[in-house]
C-alpha cells in the first residue's frame, strides 16, 4: 500500500502552497531535481566523452514509456512539445482543397490553430455530433483525452471505433491525462498519441513524447532532418555523407541532439509512476477529484459533471477574481473561460481539499 504522505514529501513546493493546479503545471519532485543534478555532475566529471551512453539511457526511457502506455519502444519518439507531433501528422498526410479536420468543441488551441493555419476546414463539434460530422472529406480527427477547460473526458473507445470503421487517422493529445489516467495505445491503435510532460507527468517544461503507429511512419516525413536521421548515426567517427537512410522506428523523427537533462528528469518521473502503479495513481487522482466535487456541491456550487476526470470545473460569476483571492491565501487553482478550474493529482490529499473549501466558502 502506498504511503501517500511519503510520496507528498518528495514534492517540496507542497510545503508552502496548497497546490490544486496540475492542469497548468505539475510540481517536480526531489527525485527529479536529483536526476538533473546527477546528469550535470556526470557531464562535469566525464567532460561529455560518454555522450553516446546518454542515448542508451534515453532508449531505456523509451522502454519505460512504452510500458506506461502499452506500446512498443520503437513507437516512442521525443519532441519539444505536443504541437510538434500534430505538425508532423499535418505535414505528412496528403491534403486537397476542402479536406477536413474534426475536433471536439473547446479543444486546446493546438488542435484549432494548426489545421486552420494550413487552410484546412476545421469542424468543431460536441461529442454527441462527432459521428454525424465525419464525411468522406474528413482526413483527421484530433482531440484531447481530457478537455483543458471543462475537464470533459473524451470517450476514446467510441471515437477510436468510429475512426477505424471509416479509415480516418486519429490524433490523441494526452497532455491533460498522461501521468494521471491510464492509456492503452495497443488497444486503441491511434495514428499518434502525444503528451507534453510538464503537467500531470511532473517534469520540467521543454520535453514531450509521442507514440507513432508503425503503419503511419512510412507516410510521415520528418519535420527535422539532421545528423541523427541516418540509421547508423552512432558511428560518429565516420558519419554517413549522402541521403540519410531513415530508421523504421519513431526515432527517425528526432533528427538531432536531445534535451538530455529533461529526459533524465522525465525518467525519474516515469520511474515513480511505474513503482507506485498507474492503476493506483489513477484511483488516487479520481478519488480526490470526486471528493472535491462533492464538497463543492456542499457549498451550493454546481461543478460540471465529469466523473472520471482529474479536472474539476466550477462556473462562477467572476472565476478570475476567485482564483486571485485563493492565490492570496496560497491556494493555487486556475480560471478558464468563466470556470474555476481545480485539478487534483496523486500528491494532493484531503487537507488540500479542506483548505480550498474553507477559503472558497469565505470568498463566496
Question: In a nutshell, what does this entry contain?
Answer:
This protein is an alpha/beta fold. It has helices spanning 4-8, 30-46, 51-69, 82-92, 109-117, 130-133, 156-166, 185-188, 260-276, 278-298, 319-328, 350-363; strands at residues 18-19, 76-79, 100-104, 121-125, 138-144, 170-173, 192-196, 208-212, 311-315, 331-332, 334-336, 339-343.
List the defining traits of the structure above.
364 residues; alpha/beta; Aspartate Aminotransferase, domain 1; Aspartate Aminotransferase, domain 2; 2 domains; seven-stranded mixed sheet; three-stranded antiparallel sheet; 12 helices; globular
Task: Explain what you see.
- There is one protein chain.
- This protein is of the alpha/beta class and 364 residues long.
- The chain has two domains: 4-27 and 278-363, Aspartate Aminotransferase, domain 1 (Alpha-Beta Complex); 38-275, Type I PLP-dependent aspartate aminotransferase-like (Major domain) (Aspartate Aminotransferase, domain 2).
- It is built from twelve helices and twelve strands.
- It has helices at residues 4-8, 30-46, 51-69, 82-92, 109-117, 130-133, 156-166, 185-188, 260-276, 278-298, 319-328, 350-363; strands at residues 18-19, 76-79, 100-104, 121-125, 138-144, 170-173, 192-196, 208-212, 311-315, 331-332, 334-336, 339-343.
- Strands 2-8-7-6-5-3-4 form a seven-stranded mixed beta sheet, sandwiched between helices. Strands 9-12-11 form a three-stranded antiparallel beta sheet, with helices on one face. A two-stranded parallel ribbon has the order 1-10.
- Strand 3, helix 5 and strand 4 form a beta-alpha-beta unit.
- Helix 3 runs parallel beside helix 9 and helix 4 (82-92) runs parallel beside helix 5 (109-117).
- The protein is globular and about 70 Å long.
- The chain starts with a helix and ends with a helix.
- The mean pLDDT is 97.
Amino acid at each position: 500500500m502506498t504511503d501517500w504522505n511519503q510520496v507528498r514529501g518528495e514534492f517540496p513546493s507542497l510545503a508552502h502552497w496548497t497546490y490544486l493546479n496540475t492542469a497548468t503545471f505539475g510540481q517536480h519532485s526531489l527525485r527529479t531535481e536529483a536526476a538533473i543534478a546527477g546528469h550535470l555532475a556526470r557531464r562535469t566529471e566525464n567532460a561529455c566523452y560518454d555522450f553516446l551512453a546518454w542515448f542508451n539511457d534515453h532508449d531505456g526511457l523509451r522502454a519505460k514509456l512504452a510500458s506506461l502506455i502499452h506500446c512498443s519502444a520503437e513507437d516512442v519518439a521525443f519532441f519539444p512539445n505536443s504541437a510538434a507531433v500534430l505538425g508532423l501528422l499535418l505535414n505528412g498526410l496528403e491534403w486537397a482543397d476542402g479536406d477536413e479536420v474534426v475536433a471536439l468543441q473547446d479543444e486546446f488551441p493546438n488542435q484549432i490553430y494548426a489545421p486552420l493555419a494550413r487552410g484546412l476546414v476545421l469542424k468543431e463539434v460536441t461529442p454527441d455530433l462527432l459521428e454525424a460530422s465525419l464525411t468522406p472529406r474528413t482526413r483527421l480527427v484530433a482531440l484531447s483525452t481530457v478537455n483543458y477547460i471543462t475537464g470533459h473526458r473524451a470517450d476514446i473507445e467510441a471515437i477510436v471505433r468510429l475512426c477505424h470503421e471509416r479509415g480516418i487517422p486519429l490524433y490523441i493529445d494526452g497532455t491533460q491525462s498522461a501521468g494521471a489516467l491510464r492509456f492503452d495505445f495497443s488497444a486503441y491503435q491511434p495514428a499518434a498519441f502525444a503528451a507534453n510532460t510538464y503537467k500531470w507527468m511532473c517534469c520540467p517544461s521543454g520535453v514531450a513524447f509521442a507514440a507513432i503507429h508503425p503503419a503511419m511512419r512510412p507516410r510521415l516525413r520528418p519535420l527535422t532532418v539532421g545528423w541523427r536521421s541516418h540509421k547508423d548515426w552512432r558511428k560518429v567517427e565516420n558519419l554517413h555523407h549522402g541521403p540519410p537512410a531513415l530508421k523504421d522506428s519513431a526515432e527517425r523523427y528526432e533528427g538531432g541532439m536531445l534535451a538530455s537533462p529533461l529526459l533524465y528528469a522525465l525518467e525519474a518521473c516515469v520511474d515513480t509512476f511505474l513503482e507506485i502503479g498507474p492503476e493506483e495513481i489513477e484511483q488516487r487522482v479520481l478519488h480526490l477529484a470526486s471528493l472535491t466535487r462533492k464538497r463543492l456541491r456542499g457549498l451550493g456550487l454546481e461543478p460540471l459533471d465529469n466523473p472520471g476526470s482529474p479536472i474539476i470545473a466550477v462556473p462562477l460569476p467572476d472565476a478570475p477574481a476567485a482564483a486571485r483571492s485563493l492565490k492570496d491565501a496560497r491556494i493555487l487553482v486556475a480560471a478558464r473561460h468563466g470556470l474555476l478550474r481545480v485539478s487534483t493529482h496523486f500528491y494532493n490529499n484531503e487537507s488540500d481539499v479542506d483548505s480550498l473549501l474553507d477559503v472558497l466558502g469565505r470568498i463566496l
